[in-house]
Write a structure and sequence with these properties.
There is one protein chain. The chain is an alpha/beta fold. It has a domain of 199 residues: TIM Barrel (Alpha-Beta Barrel). 40% of the residues lie in helices and 15% in strands. The chain is built from ten helices and seven strands. It has a seven-stranded mixed beta sheet with strand order 1-2-3-4-5-6-7. Strand 2, helix 3 and strand 3 form a beta-alpha-beta unit. The two termini are 35 Å apart. 43% of the residues are buried.
């Protein structure tokens, strides 16, 4: 994207992660980083939980940083993994809590199964070896990878994400709980939130959603498209902006910041304009 387009969107970043899921920054560290980079509006969108939102909102108020409550729910349609973002969500909603608790329980079970597979392959791990790296409630493959580095089985985290170990379809890979996109969309709507498809160009690590599939999701209740994303180049960004406009869907954007777990990406590296955010916020107020 051009510098002008980039700078116009630098102050509002609606896609970031903390240690509550697979981010490396604590809530306090995330807020400090955003203040340091002069952001004005952010959303915390941890995977499958909202446990960091209250702390980030409190710290943000103290620093003059507006915080939108958010979440990113991992879902599947066949082999394809769809991430559904939810904005302005009520974190105490019963339907949302029920789904996130079921997902988090399944993550623990999944971790045990991956540990068992790795141990059978000659890379023994204990659950405690992995759990110590999960400072939040959510367990995932990055925590398994860190434990493998600690044990000296691999040199760096990326080495774990191969077919030999825990990449999708790898020898020690275990599928996540199979939540359908429509389930996540319905739960976000029940929690008075706005469901948005995240990074539509990168689905299942390579496939892209076309206009027809996004239209199908709209019919299921989808309200927006994450157009601006560090995974989208300028050409892809223009494509999804056009799709969003043609389907009359809201436009969002964010960096997908994970701290040191996303090297080279900083808060504000992608975002959205004030006008785009005001439209999103106005829609949220209209449905409350």
């Amino acid at each position: 994207m051009s510098k002008d387009m980039f700078s116009e969107r630098k102050k509002i970043d609606l896609h970031m992660h903390t240690t509550a899921s697979d981010g490396a920054s604590t809530p306090a560290e995330l807020v400090e980083k955003c203040i340091e980079l002069d952001l004005e509006v952010i959303a915390v969108t941890d995977h499958d939980n909202m446990t960091s939102v209250e702390e980030v909102e409190k710290l943000g108020r103290q620093k003059g940083l507006k915080v939108v409550p958010g979440i990113e729910i991992s879902t599947y349609r066949g082999e394809a993994e769809y991430h559904i973002l939810g904005y302005f969500v009520d974190p105490e909603n019963d339907a949302l809590l029920g789904l996130t608790e079921a997902i988090l329980d399944s993550r623990v079970e999944r971790t045990h199964k991956m540990i068992e597979k790795l141990s059978e392959m000659g890379y023994p791990l204990e659950f405690a070896d992995v759990k110590k790296y999960a400072t939040g409630v959510s367990l995932g493959r990055p925590h398994v990878a860190r434990a493998m580095v600690d044990k000296g089985y691999i040199e760096e985290i990326g080495d774990a994400f191969t077919e030999e170990f825990i990449a999708g379809g790898g020898k020690a890979y275990v599928e996540k709980k199979n939540v359908l996109p429509v389930e996540a969309i319905e739960v976000i709507l029940k929690a008075d939130g706005i469901p948005v498809i995240a990074h539509p160009y990168i689905i299942n690590h390579g496939e892209a959603l076309d206009k027809e599939e996004i239209a199908r999701l709209k019919n299921l209740g989808l309200k927006g498209v994450e157009v601006y994303q560090t995974k989208h180049n300028e050409k892809i960004t223009k494509k999804y902006k056009q799709i969003a406009e043609e389907l009359d869907l809201l436009i969002t954007g964010g960096s997908d910041y994970h701290g040191e777990n996303s090297p080279g990406i900083l808060p504000g590296d992608r975002g959205m304009t004030e006008a785009e955010f005001e439209k999103l916020e106005s829609y949220a107020h209209s449905v409350l």
